[in-house]
Amino acid sequence: MTAVFDRADLPKHVNVDRLYLRDRNCRAQWNATHVIARTPLTGCGTVFSKTDQTLFFSNVLSEEGHSSGFGVITRDYLFKANLTCTYPRKLTVGAFSFAPAKQKVFGNLGGQGNFSLTLDVFKNFDYLQSYRSQDYPVFKSLSDNIYIQYSINTINSNLVVRAETCRATPTNRPYDTPQYVFIADGCDQDETIRHYTRGVSSDQRFSMQAFRFLSEHRFVYLHCDLVVCHRYDYNSTCWRSTSCSRRKRRDVDKRPADVSGMYPLSFGPIMHEKLSKDKNPGARSKAMSTTLVGSLIGFGCLGVVLVAVLAYVKKRYLRRRSDPARKGVVKKGALAMQNLGYA
């Protein structure tokens, strides 16, 4: 069981170093942007319960405070969050099942107005037609490119967007494992990434070559944490180079104060396909028919040539037998060979 909290959403007084589950040996992990609590379903004090339809696994993430008054009172405002993971007891078994990803979120920046953020994958490099929910799972061969676009929709033209971190996981959970990070701190980590947008913009487009996980996972989900910036704040994340020199990489923790919090978006699932052309049975049938017709035409032409050659050879043979002069030459040569003892 994994629970992820955006640090920007936590009360300011929370001390992330003192966040524990029921078992005080199980401490929450954290980074610059998120607090992550992980526990096995049978560990860290997790409590199990059930109904006729559902299994429940629950725990509590709480902040340990400093006590006073002989350990009876405290003056700390302590954080507490109840965590519950549920599983249905009855499932319908099919060829495969998947959970679509979250492709759109809504937000608000004080004094800047409302906006929405979207993450889409397009079918071709022209970025004209995106995949929709009815297209899931999206099939890609390892030689295909994935054409990605994330954007902000707002009436405020001063707001632009940038991906802070992008990763891939085998499920629709962005912090699941295994995971492959292809953008970190706004910097490209995958050598196949190609950008099609220059500078700051309300739309960002890039592509990368498709891949699959080495382990036995059928799906790939893409997750991006987006930040919203002011267009003319040249120190913001949105103005950072995507290539990112080593010097700039050391400065990524110096986050500008006017950059918004993280907005997580996901796309998927994408499913590995051995050959892209196998997706169209009609095309395969047409190709096979064309090959068969071509083969029959080839064999027909070869048959005509063989008949012509046989006719020519037979004609030459009959002409030689009917030529008296040719017969005399042959006999004379045979006699000469006999005289020499070779015939």
Automatic annotation (TrEMBL):
SMART domains: ZP (SM00241)
Entry keyword annotation includes Signal: yes
InterPro entries tied to this protein: ZP-C, ZP-C_dom, ZP-N, ZP_chr, ZP_dom
Keyword Transcription annotated: no
Pfam families, alphabetized: Zona_pellucida (PF00100), ZP-N (PF23344)
Keywords of this entry: Disulfide bond, Glycoprotein, Signal
Name of this chain's protein: Uncharacterized protein
PROSITE patterns membership: ZP_2 (PS51034)
Gene3D superfamilies: Zona pellucida, ZP-C domain, Zona pellucida, ZP-N domain
